[in-house]
Design brief:
By secondary structure, the chain is mainly α. The protein is 67% helix and 0% strand. The longest helix has 23 residues.
């Protein structure tokens, strides 16, 4: 039986979460230049986690 939560699916989930949090931030502030600090930090953290999960561990040589 295959696992449901593969690295690629988790990475995609965190990327979608990051985009969603950016959307919420834009809806709350209604400005691209003004951000709610906590939401923006969570969004950036989600994107970084998605990038880390997307990396192939076998590439290290």
């Amino acid at each position: 039986m295959k696992t449901v939560f593969t690295r690629k699916r988790l990475a995609m989930g965190f990327a979608v979460l990051g985009i969603g949090l950016m959307g919420v931030d834009l809806m709350i502030t209604r400005s691209v230049f003004i951000h709610v600090g906590e939401i923006m930090a969570l969004s950036i953290f989600s994107f970084v986690l998605a990038i880390v999960l997307e990396r192939d561990p076998k590439r290290r040589q």
